Amino acid sequence: MPLDKIASVLNEGNCFLLTTHSDPDADGIGSMLALGKALLEAEKNVILLTQKPVFAPFNLLKDANRIVQKFDYEMDFDAVVVLDCAGMARLGEHRIFLEGRKPLINIDHHETNDFFGDLNLVDINSSSTGELVFELIKVAGLPMGHHVAENIFIAIQNDTGSFRYENTTSTSLRISAEMMEYGVKPWEVSRRVMDGYSLSRLRLLEMSLGTIEFHHEGKIAMMTISLEMFEKAQAHREDCEGFIDYPRFTWGVEIAVLIRQIDENDYKFSLRSNKKVNVATLASCFGGGGHARAAGYECHGAIGALKQDFLAEAIRFF
Ligand SMILES: [Mn+2]
Description:
This protein has twelve helices and twelve strands. The protein has helices at 2-12, 26-41, 95-98, 129-140, 146-159, 170-180, 186-194, 199-209, 227-233, 245-248, 279-284, 303-314, and strands at residues 15-20, 45-49, 67-68, 79-83, 104-108, 119-122, 213-215, 220-225, 255-263, 266-273, 289-290, 294-300. The protein binds manganese (II) ion. Manganese (II) ion (MN) binds next to loops.
């Protein structure tokens, strides 16, 4: 069982590097912080690595100040643990320094995970990586405390859309309830991390809502956010987190798309579906991946042509 093997690697080792995908969400960061804190409490040495510094609201997660963007490449680790990451390509620039390190541990719940690790704890039926980290901490007998519990709670809350999405199971709710017994207050966490919106975010939302366009008899809704809009609103890339839910939860919409400009001719397409379309398969037509209801890909070209390419493919999924 990968779970038992990973638990013994963590128990026997002393020095670990933990990381998550680039452009991380609260599941990636929360899972990394939770496992990191549990290992620290067990008196292990831990490096928590992200490609870029974490911005609000993720810098408000407990122990987020321990996250670094550089490490001593000569350093040896008893294991490198990659969390919430479907493939090594999603590690960005750190990939070359982490590839080939042994053992590489892959803990994830993405449908498109390619089992890149030496040990793979991959469960696509798990709501979040946070849930898998909870199981691992239990099996390994690592210490659980308020900080660990809060980050697991946030990871699950994030990926289940605050317990509203299809992936919410009795297990997700049971684990979350158990986390509350360590002192986690859902209202306080939501206020601080989920709903603590900045004025910039509100300005960006105002502009983004104006870009929504409907296609295929209202079954496909697209929102586009340009670099210029980010600049005008003085917003960070993280500020558009959750915007896709506005077109997504409009009556009649099956696929919602959020197109975010990354560079002059570079775009990130984030896809969501409601009932029927497997957007992980749709995203994989463009070299991306994800889950059945949430996926994405990056692409290069003129925005008009990229939208047309997407629509031509998406329509085939109905
Ligand atoms: Mn996740």
